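Attaching the record inline, Q. Sequence:
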Amino acid sequence: MDLPSQTVKDNHGLVYKFEIAPSRKEVLLKGLDDIGTSLLHAGAIDTYEKAHAATATMYETVDVKKLFQWPLK
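Structure, as predicted:
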């Protein structure tokens, strides 16, 4: 199989061409998984997180046991 040329060849000279999405082909050629693909954008992710950290709303944890009295009525 020749991914860059999108062909499969056998020993008898048969050549079959196949289609693959350009984005899928790129990650296969680079050996990337979903995490590796995300890490390609690490700089942009860090920039976004730093810019939005100041406006992030944090909530207090809720203890469900105290919120509801058992048995429920």
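The longest helix spans residues 42-53. The radius of gyration is 25 Å.

More tomorrow.
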